[in-house]
Amino acid sequence: MEETGERPGHYFLPSHSNPSEPLAIKRIGGSRLTPIIPLPAFAVVCIVEFLIGFIIVTYGISTSGIVARVTPNSMLGRVTSAQRFVIYGSVPLGALAGGALATWIGNGNALFFAVACIFLGVVSLFLSPLRSQRTLPSEWEVL
Q1: What is the largest CA-CA distance in the chain?
Q2: Where are the transmembrane segments (predicted)?
Q3: 33, 41, 45, 129: which is deepest, by most CB within 10 A?
Q4: Around Cβ 46, how many Cβ atoms within 10 Å?
């Protein structure tokens, strides 16, 4: 660390070029989206974190009712635990893949790629025929 001039916690201390802005915020705000979003980087990060949390809660609420209706009571615990294992087990794998991608193509490009993937997921849901379906097919329901 001494050879490069870095010190512990230097990402959260003021940067040399702008003493009022921490280096971490400068690196986050220095992405390709900066010219598009005319907000300070901290505000953008707060808004994105809020939206991600909102989407996670909405997903949990919408899927819990469907899973309960299509799964027999005797299998509900196993199905729920398998679903959580896959969802929460993919988080460290995604973090590892994101870190490898950021090492390979750079932090800004990796974040831009992540945003593009999220956007494509949302677009595919809006173009899906499931969006207009309001009721569950009767053959799927467990009596």
Answers
A1: 68
A2: 41-64, 85-105, 111-130
A3: 41
A4: 12
Compute the distance between CA of residue 71 and CA of residue 82 in angstroms, rounded to an integer.
Answer: 13
Matching residue, tokens 């969802």: 87
What gap in Å lies between CA 70 and CA 24, rounded to an integer? Answer: 46
Averaged in consecutive runs of 10 residues, what is the pLDDT profile of the chain (143 residues)? 49 50 48 56 79 85 85 90 90 92 88 85 84 80 75
Lookup: tokens for 32: 């390709």
Rounded Cα gap, residues 42 and 31, in angstroms: 13
Tally Cβ neighbours within 10 Å of residue 22: 19
Distance CA 70, CA 47 (A): 35
142 token code pair: 């467990």
